[in-house]
Write a structure and sequence with these properties.
With 171 residues, this protein is an alpha+beta fold. The protein has four helices and ten strands, in the order H-E-E-H-E-E-H-E-E-E-E-E-H-E.
Length: 171
């Protein structure tokens, strides 16, 4: 097992520098409307508070680069919960429309969606396996100020007042 240690200020700077290079590279690799080939899926586990928020919000934003897949089975792997995870709920997002995305891992049919996407919730239902299925369509983008510093990676809800609340961890 690798040794555990806190990140140093140098480590944090290296991470920030690497992140600053990822976004421009992703933009160069991305293609318009990756959902023209079919919907994308993203799976995750959420807690009680996040589930309640997810059920009440109709607009979701991507605060950071967000992983998704053309293969719904990949999403289900990340959404699967067990009796050993009390208070966790599986959620699968079905992205019917995304403005841009970059195919990154052909084995998983992975598509990375850029940060700052604004997604309209169009449907909520339950899968036969019990996970919540949230269907969304991209409805534009949000400014960097609206999408940053809200403590989340992946889909987050942003109420009308403009402050963000985390409901799911992403990458």
């Amino acid at each position: 097992e690798p040794p555990q240690r806190a990140l140093t200020p140098r480590d944090m700077q290296l991470a920030k520098d690497a992140a600053a290079q990822i976004e421009p590279a992703l933009e160069q690799l991305s293609v318009p409307n990756p959902t023209a080939q079919g919907p994308l899926y993203r799976g995750m586990k959420v807690n009680d508070a996040a589930l309640a928020e997810l059920m009440s919000e109709d607009v979701l934003h991507t605060a950071t680069i967000t992983s998704s897949s053309y293969n719904p089975r990949e999403a289900l792997k990340f959404a699967a919960t067990s009796k050993y995870e009390p208070g966790k709920y599986g959620v699968v997002f079905k992205v019917e429309r995304a403005e841009r995305g970059a195919l990154m891992n052909p084995d998983e049919l992975e598509v990375l969606l850029p940060k700052g996407g604004k997604y309209q919730v169009t449907d909520r239902s339950r899968l036969a396996s019990g996970e919540l299925l949230v269907t969304v369509r991209q409805a534009g983008t949000v400014t960097a100020d609206a999408a940053k510093n809200i403590g989340a990676m992946g889909f987050v809800s942003v109420p009308a007042g403009g402050t963000g609340a985390q409901f799911a961890k992403g990458l």
